[in-house]
């Protein structure tokens, strides 16, 4: 048995070395603490500045949206009022006709008063308003006196009914007043849903945001729900300086007995600073850094104490070889556990590029057994491009696209060398699979693009719809009330044609709006196998007519919490696309599995495939390769899967077929999942 030699060191020298090492470690930790605080504050400064810039842009969008909505309502009501004015001045008006116009255009009331305030016509002649003439004199005085031709009254509380109305008035040539109103509840709901308070409250729901507020010179203009009072801008020197400099600034303050990081930015409207945006961020990250650093100092002190004790023990005691061996075995086992449990593939290569060691993640990545991998070459498992990047590239970290077991993957390769005493170096290769991360990035980009296009479609649809309604109303009115001397039948036919074309365009607009404002997902728990069997029953015989074989392979029978109808729509869309891609005679496979914490649904076919340049565009709105396609189906599929917190992977090759892979969380707790499965299996 071998023993460690006794080491004779003077206790005073040992104490000096001990104190020197302690001083170096403590200085390093304190320096790191200061630097960490500085970096966290810089990070919080950048984060708060970005949030404030977002708040400024969003606030201006809120104001513009509110003004735009009210302008659209005004135009709609005044356009209808202009039609009524023409009919009235031509002597063609009646209460019955007013009632029809009101019903066709969604109006609550259409009243016509003479300049004395007397009610001449109304779509509801037997009004429940006891004294409409007196009310008309009070409201419509600017029209009766000739001060205004158009009067925008806006939102008013209904006199004779519950609720609020949006009211406008239009003068006739004789200074009579045409008054229209509609239900203002929807407008009020929109204002509440997009107002400053909602914006600030939603922002406060983000992790780390303590409060948000818009502070004017005289007090709060708007704030998140947890803010009752903040000091006035004119009484706060920091806020006054910010208003004068019109620049971003920050400081630390106390809010609700908690120290927070507050950032402010002037809020300008029409070139004039009317207040400041204030956002308070939690200092929990900074405090966490302090706590970790303090803990490390304490641990370092304990380590130093242990180290000193060990050094002293080395001076006076002979170490037992068995203890050293035990510690060595422990460290070896611990490092081996870390090596095997890490999620990234780790491969150790010798000087001949043979595999000396590979962890479980590596075996799983290459789908190979350990005995097959050890002492074999790396080349057969990786593609040529990846191998060249590893051995012929000086960079330590390389990203490479590589086909592994027939599946194209995006790999992040990290390499380093381990030198041994015999000067023979091993190459340690760490491989991280970025495929799913890249797909998530693509899906996020697609979602952003779809949102932008949906927003554009919604805006265009709303801009077109109101003039179309007016055109349709006028076409009906002309067809009903006017008749030419000659070619009467052709006249009526053309009038009906105009009206029918307006309705057709309106249906197209409705399709725009369905995509722009889809139905929210309504989740419920259901057995996924039951849905798949319904799909199989629906399509098996239908596809057989085209000599297309449909097969369902379900390796998991469990419960999911999804929107059943929308997921069914997703699967039907993929199957319909596969059917169109095959044409006649082919095969469609539907495979279900649950390898980890998410469900995988694969829809694959052996159809004509998708061109490489089109793979990244198939989810774009209105992109289609079909002669009669709309280009909306896969965009809707993308949105539905995204709202279920899922991801779609696409693999396709021209002439060989296409595979779509859906990865979606079950959204069911494990205990609940097992309980329900047990009930089903009884």
Salient structural properties:
Beta-Lactamase; 682 residues; five-stranded antiparallel sheet; disordered N terminus; 19 helices; 50% helix; alpha+beta
Q: What does it look like?
A:
This protein is α+β, with helices and mostly antiparallel strands and 682 residues long. Among the domains are: 93-190, Beta-Lactamase; 322-433, 2-Layer Sandwich (Beta-Lactamase), CATH 3.30.450; 441-516; 524-681, Histidine kinase-like ATPase, C-terminal domain (Heat Shock Protein 90, 2-Layer Sandwich), CATH 3.30.565.10. 50% of the residues lie in helices and 23% in strands. It contains 19 helices and 22 strands. The chain has a 5-stranded antiparallel beta sheet, sandwiched between helices. A hairpin with a 3-residue loop joins strand 6 and strand 7. Helix 1 runs antiparallel to helix 5, helix 1 (11-89) runs antiparallel to helix 8 and helix 1 runs parallel beside helix 13 (435-481). The chain starts with 10 loop residues before the first helix and ends with a helix. The model is unreliable at 1-7 and 671-677 (pLDDT under 50).
